[in-house]
Amino acid sequence: MTISRRKILSGLGITTTILLSPLQLFATSLKEKIETFRDTLNGKLITRNDKNYELTRLSSVWQQVKPKQFPDCIVQAKNVDDVVAAVNFARTNHKQISIRCGGHSYYSSFLQNDKLMLDVSSLREVSIDTGKRQARVQVAMRSVDFMAEIAKHGFSFPAAHCGNVPLGGFLLGGGAGWNGEAWGGMSCFNISEVEVVTAQGQLIRANAEQNSDYYWAARGARPNFFGVVTEFVLDLYAEPKVILTTTLIWEVSRAKDVADWLEAHIRSMPENVEALFILTQNPDPKHEAGEERVCIVQVSAFSDTEAEARQALAPLSSSAMTDDCLAKTEYASTPIASLYEWDAMAYPQWRWDVDHLWSDDSAGDVVEKVIQHTRDMPSTRSSILLLLKPHTKELPDAAFSMIGSLYIACYAIWGSPDEDIPNNNWVKKTMTLLKENTKGHYVNESNYADNPERARGSFSAESLQKLKRLSSKHDPEHLFHSYL
Ligand SMILES: Cc1cc2nc3c(=O)[nH]c(=O)nc-3n(C[C@H](O)[C@H](O)[C@H](O)COP(=O)(O)OP(=O)(O)OC[C@H]3O[C@@H](n4cnc5c(N)ncnc54)[C@H](O)[C@@H]3O)c2cc1C
């Protein structure tokens, strides 16, 4: 069957009759709708026919491994009006939405075949209310910029350890940030309000009293959230006047003893002390022959005075355990800006594969299982990292509901696609070695596409039930892509 449609090329005064199949008619009308939508946007719409589509798609992914996933179109929202327009356009045209903020998801969860990818990375405004000690900040502001901005007013916040990571995905997935234990545990527990564009295209504000379903979910649901978050209101902390860091390095053969020793000390240290334990390549290019793999202990104290910070770190220096360190830097002054510089160097934008687990087991037991595996690491840039004491308080009622006393992450970082297989296998083997130590997974860093069961492992059973119920209630037509 064909349908006849009269088209008047009015400018020339010519009337033609074009015969169209229903499919062509649909395609044409969708094309027209797309063009109308394009005209209404302040930002940009990029479709698969546009010549800059592939460049835009590739550059949306922060690292060098670029998944072969092709959204139908990409909306680069310039402001909140664009977000509302994109949600309404997608709903009326039955297009599912995936959301991109900073593109730092390890597995590019925002990049999905045939979807409308809504890129909110231009939403970066911030204002500070010094009286209330709060910041209103749009989702895509980078951690390093946010910290610099609030520091002008004497405030700080548990922003992401890597400065380029924006607040959006980081906070929606929990957020393990600077000085986390002292500053509310997971960073999302410092959200006091969110601004959300709902599946119905309404712009709402959600907090503990108002639209509380959205507030509950915004603290931890991340790739399963049923709306677009455009802004957070965050509770701030007084900026620590002094941050001192002690860094100690041992041969990897000492790793179990060091982990046991660190854990014994760290649990009794004040909550403003943050401890990382890293198994990796010796960072000193001039290191003596012997073991190239090392364990690094990096402990920072966030304090008001130098004396207080030194006192907090003192147990590390006075111990006989440090006698056989390969290298020792004690009480170094490390303002946030310098910690961010260190992080940027440690985590280059190369090819990445990452996996992780929460565990309640002892650090020494976990570390012992991966000592030889650290020696077998195919890339010298890779590491296995333990965050001790990620959150020691009872979790508030929120979507974020899975945590352990240890966070263990395995980062494979390498340069060439030829080295993908050994590096991917190394990450897989880490998880196999630590299978029995696994309590659950971190919502922010899970690969749900390859492991759909991770959705269960990232939430408590109760929270997962509630999240599914709220998602069906507020997004009944599944406008937003989710892994539930
Ligand atoms: C180098 C590096 C360092 C990191 N360091 C830390 C760290 O110190 N601590 C930590 O906890 N995590 C860390 N992460 C993990 C990071 O927090 C998550 O990957 C986070 O999701 C990245 O945020 P993003 O805004 O780039 O999210 P994107 O990758 O842009 O989006 C990821 C998903 O979040 C959801 N989402 C994003 N924005 C919105 C929105 N506005 N509304 C609704 N849903 C949205 C979408 O489902 C999207 O698929 C790090 C990651 C990298 C690559």
Could you characterize the architecture of this molecule?
The chain is built from 14 helices and 20 strands. By secondary structure, it is an alpha+beta fold. It folds into 3 domains: 3-119, 2-Layer Sandwich (Uridine Diphospho-n-acetylenolpyruvylglucosamine Reductase, domain 3); 126-238, Uridine Diphospho-n-acetylenolpyruvylglucosamine Reductase, domain 3, CATH 3.30.465.10; 242-457, Vanillyl-alcohol Oxidase, Chain A, domain 3. Strand 1 and strand 2 (14-20) form a beta hairpin. The protein is globular and about 75 Å long. The two termini are 41 Å apart. The structure holds flavin-adenine dinucleotide. Residues 62, 98-106, 109-110, 120, 139, 160-162, 165-166, 168-170, 172-173, 175-176, 222-223, 225, 228-229, 347, 444-445 line the site of flavin-adenine dinucleotide.
Give the averaged pLDDT, no decimals: 91
The strands making up the biggest β-sheet line up spatially as: 17-14-16-15-19-20-18
What is the domain tally? 3
Report the major sheet: 7 strands, antiparallel
Estimated helix fraction: 25-40%
Oligomer: single chain
Which ligands does the model contain, each kind named once?
flavin-adenine dinucleotide
Distance between the termini: 41 Å
What integer value in Å does the Rg equal? 25 Å
**CATH architectural grouping of the largest domain:** 3-Layer(aba) Sandwich
SS strand fraction: 25-35%
Based on secondary structure, the structural category is alpha+beta
Our count of helices gives 14
CATH C-level of the largest domain: Alpha Beta
Contiguous uncertain segments of 5+ residues: 1-18
Using the coordinates shown, work out and report the CATH topology of the largest domain.
Vanillyl-alcohol Oxidase, Chain A, domain 3
Please tell me what the overall shape is: globular
Number of strands: 20
